[in-house]
Amino acid sequence: MKSLLLTLLFLGIGIPGNAEDKEPEKKPADEKAPEKPVELVDQAIVTDHVGVFGGSELPYYATAGTMVINKAEDKTKAAMFYVAYTAKGVKDPATRPIVFCFNGGPGSSGVWLHLGGFGPKRVAMKPDGTMPAPPFTLADNPASLLRVADLVFIDPVSTGFSRVEDKEKAGEFHGFEGDLDSMAEFIRLYTTREGRWLSPKFLAGESYGSLRAAALAQVLHQKFGLYLNGIVLVSGVLNFETLFDTDTAAVAFLPAMSEVAAYHEQLGPDLMADAAARRAEVEAFASGDYATALLRGTALPAEEKTALAERIARYTSIDPTTVERHDLRIPPSFFQEELLRGKGLVIGRFDARITGTDGVRAGIAPEYDPSYAAVYGPFSATLNDYLRRDLKFESDLVYEILSSRVRPWNYGDDFVGQPISVLDRLAQVMSQNPSLRVLVNCGYQDLATPATAIRHSLDHLKIDPSLRSNISYTFYEGGHMMYTIEASNAAWNADVAKFVSGE
Q1: Which of 133, 267, 375, 423 has the most CB within a 10 Å radius?
Q2: How many beta carbons lie within 10 A of that of residue 181, not counting itself?
Q3: For the chain, what is the radius of gyration of the CA atoms?
Q4: Whose CA is closest to 110, among 224, 219, 213, 214?
Q5: Which of 235, 283, 281 is nearest to 113 (CA)?
Q6: What per-residue confidence (pLDDT) applies to 71?
Q7: Separation of CA 470 from chain center
Q8: Which among 60, 52, 120 is positioned nearest to 89, based on CA atoms?
Q9: Cα angle, residue 149 at apex, residues 144 and 155 outer, rounded to 5°
């Protein structure tokens, strides 16, 4: 069995004349030899499988491989790793949807959507999504989206097993536009080679992957005439202004903080009695009195500021004096440290249901994210075993779950002096392809990309009112990776299956 085979090429140095007549050139001790390029190959390992999804047996192929893609302007190459699942016995590909799936970061591999919930196998977490004791295992995923669509999980360049030929040029892929170009080229090549141009086509992106998906839809549309049927935005973001250090972000995070406080039973009995009523009350306050107050800035009278701090405290359980000291804007990282400080616990960012201890009782932010720690080990171990044992893909490379190789990430000149946003691109492609639908999946306890943030972005999407009905939302117990919870995973897959099937 051949391995991934990104084999180092030997670089010969031509020396004129007889080498024995010359002394070897000496280099300063601190001068490093240039990185040797790697040889990239197309590779596809295909294995046969049978699964039971939605109560029906489905034979399918799994393909684990690398596809070499090329940046046309300068011939810079990369090999992108992927795992594809395709149903057997489909005579007409036009009758079978295909979903291209990826995560975000930037720098994340596709492992989370792959083994979290869409794929035919999923990491066996505890039913509530918390971490079991090692050794970790995979389980069948009867809810898998494979029952209605073929799936392709893509590792962007420098994540997973994806590698660039010349490391000196890796930065060409490590940025907003370079990433879009490489992902678009992979999808074009796969669609062409597998004969899927007439299949219903979807993108599914999580976190930064949702921002990528929205912009990628426009690139595929404009560059290749590859029109999509739908985009699935999982725990998404479309405009960074809604997440970082702005009044908009403060408004967006408040409902999520209230959800988390309720989950940990830190709110008053009146708010705990009816979750739907509480959510409506908090969201009305956040987009109403709270947003108006923040816009007033220092013009807000002291007594009104104190009254607002009391209301924020009611919805978040953070002491009103502390709220006022933070100028009514509670930093999410501080909230993670503060909410359960009295119990000596910090809460997760990706999934604020999950708690941990960091030994710093007087901190202003957790030293680590206990919710990421809860998934990193199980997903890493099972992925590395599954690819080699079940899918027969051999490689000695490190599978980069969350790669630092992509840093620094280049956003280019387009966003200088303004927030990173793909709303204009999404509006353009929706206007030009009015059949394009968008499904937004949100976890209630997500303190990384709260639901209110992406809803705010889409509420400001510049599209014709007739296209508003093309956008829909679903909500689940859990955080950024709500699919780690068994019940949420089943509901999420069912919702996405209906979306993909056009129900």
Answers
A1: 375
A2: 20
A3: 25
A4: 213
A5: 235
A6: 66
A7: 22
A8: 60
A9: 75
Give me the pLDDT at residue 70, please: 85
DSSP 482: G
Q: Give the number of other CB atoms < 10 A from CB of residue 349.
A: 23
Query: What is the secondary structure of 233-301 as a DSSP string?
Result: EES--SBGGGTSSSHHHHHHHHHHHHHHHHHTT-S-HHHHS-HHHHHHHHHHHIIIIIHHHHHHGGGS-
- HSE, CB side, 13 Å, CA atoms: give it for residue 221: 25
Alpha helices in 297-403 (DSSP H): 302-316, 320-325, 332-338, 370-389
Q: Is the pLDDT of residue 17 over 50?
A: no
Please state, in angstroms and rounded to a whole number, the distance separating the CA atoms of residues 460 and 453.
Answer: 11
In a 3-state reduction of DSSP, which class is residue 133? coil
Residue 263 token pair? 């989950």
Torsion, Cα of 322, 325, 327, 328 (10° steps): 10
Q: Does residue 362 have a pLDDT over 50?
A: yes
User: Would you list the DSSP string of 38-81?
Assistant: B----EEEEEEEEEEETTEEEEEEEEEEEEEEEETTTTEEEEEE
- The residues near 26 (Cβ < 8 Å, ≥ 6 apart) are none
**Torsional sign, CA 109, 110, 114, 116:** positive
Q: What is the pLDDT of residues 70-97, one digit of tens each?
A: 865 567 799 999 999 999 999 999 999 9
> Do strands 98-102 and 201-206 pair parallel, antiparallel, or not at all (unpaired)?
parallel
- Mean pLDDT for 27-33 is 44
CB 236 within 8 Å of CB 457: no
| pLDDT of amino acid 9 | 23
Contact status, residue 109 vs residue 403, Cβ threshold 8 Å: yes
Q: Give residue 64's pLDDT.
A: 98
Least confidently predicted of 4-8, 155-159, 186-190 = 4-8
* Helix and strand numbers, DSSP H then E, in the chain: 14, 14
- In this structure, the number of other CB atoms found within 10 A of the CB of residue 58 comes to 18
Bond before 135 cis per omega within 30 degrees = yes
With a cut of 70, say whether residue 310 has pLDDT above it.
yes
Q: Distance between CA atoms of 108 and 122, rounded to whole angstroms?
A: 18
On whether the pTM is more than 0.85, the answer is yes
| Complete DSSP assignment for 193-245 | HTT-TTS-EEEEEETHHHHHHHHHHHHIIIII----SEEEEES--SBGGGTSS
Paired tokens of 232 = 């699935």
d(C-alpha 178, C-alpha 190), whole Å: 18
Structure tokens at 2: 């051949």
